[in-house]
Design brief:
The structure is a single chain. This protein is mainly alpha-helical and 168 residues long. The protein has one domain. It is 68% helix and 0% strand. Helix 1 packs antiparallel against helix 2 and helix 1 packs across helix 3. The longest helix is centred in the first third of the chain and has 27 residues. It is globular and about 60 Å long.
């Protein structure tokens, strides 16, 4: 097997193993003006181009999250014409009622709340909702651990205030 074939296989293994992470991050940042497919393709290209730079100093999932989040934020900055609102199909997790039924209203509220966040805030809250530790969030976002804690506190306050505003 040539080194090219080996690299391609390593890339395919990474993408297959961590596709859920890439999809989730792209959905969180997707909007009508920032289509999921464009974001996903951009992340995949950057993962391919950066594959040789992964040295294993952090976990593979941390590296993938960081690459995906940074790629989406960069794409959004490059294409400033976008609207930061999320499409209804872009939830990190689909809310269900206690009986396993899809809770459409809760889903819409969740999406509306997320749409009010800045790109880095979306990354931080998404990682926290995925039950990543402050250390992991720090590694992925490049923020200090204490900055993660402060930002999470502020994001939660912002979401609670936005939630109250929606209810009024």
């Amino acid at each position: 097997m040539s080194s090219k074939d080996s690299r391609q296989q390593r890339y395919m293994d990474f993408l297959q193993r961590y596709n859920r992470v890439v999809v989730k991050v792209c959905y969180i940042y997707a909007s009508e003006q920032a289509p999921f497919d464009d974001l996903y393709q951009e992340v995949c290209i950057n993962l391919w181009q950066g594959l040789d730079s992964f040295r294993g100093e952090s976990s593979a999932s941390t590296w993938i999250y960081r690459m995906a989040i940074n790629t989406c934020i960069t794409w959004l900055r490059r294409n400033k014409r976008h609207n930061m609102s999320l499409s209804l199909e872009s939830a990190a997790e689909i809310p269900y009622t206690g009986e396993g039924e899809f809770d459409t209203e809760r889903y819409r509220q969740f999406q509306l709340l997320l749409s009010r966040l800045e790109p880095l805030e979306k990354a931080v809250i998404t990682l926290w909702l995925d039950e990543h530790s402050y250390d992991e969030i720090s590694q992925i976002t490049g923020l200090s651990k204490s900055n993660v804690a402060v930002r999470l506190h502020r994001i939660k306050e912002k979401l609670m205030k936005s939630g109250k505003d929606l209810a009024d």
